[in-house]
Amino acid sequence: MKFWNDWGHEVLELARNAARDNKKNRIVPRHIQLAVRNDKELSKLLGSVTIANEGVLPNIHQTLLPKRVGKGKGDIGSASQEF
């Protein structure tokens, strides 16, 4: 029974961290999903489990993402517009 207590504690701790990263005070099913999917061991253990109201994690192939040209924040406003 100790295994399940440790497992539950680990999931809640990771979900709390995910909620904090998203600047939220409450843990919602989405945070539990993020915690499980981003942890290698938990993902292996709970990979086929469906969590209600969780949504989906975005999985965008690297070739479809825009290429990063700039190296910092200074490049954000440097583009000029022509009319």
TrEMBL record:
SMART domains per the UniProt record, alphabetical: H2A
Annotated localization: Nucleus
Keywords: Chromosome, DNA-binding, Nucleosome core, Nucleus
Keyword Cytoplasm assigned: no
Listed GO MF terms: DNA binding; protein heterodimerization activity; structural constituent of chromatin
Pfam families assigned to the protein according to its UniProt record, in alphabetical order: Histone_H2A_C (PF16211)
Top-level taxon in the UniProt lineage: Eukaryota
Entries under InterPro entries matching the protein: Histone-fold (IPR009072), Histone_H2A (IPR002119), Histone_H2A_C (IPR032454)
SUPFAM superfamilies registered for this protein in UniProt: Histone-fold
Keyword set includes DNA-binding: yes
Domain Histone H2A C-terminal: 40-73
Family: Belongs to the histone H2A family.
Subunit structure: The nucleosome is a histone octamer containing two molecules each of H2A, H2B, H3 and H4 assembled in one H3-H4 heterotetramer and two H2A-H2B heterodimers. The octamer wraps approximately 147 bp of DNA.
Name under which the protein is recorded: Histone H2A
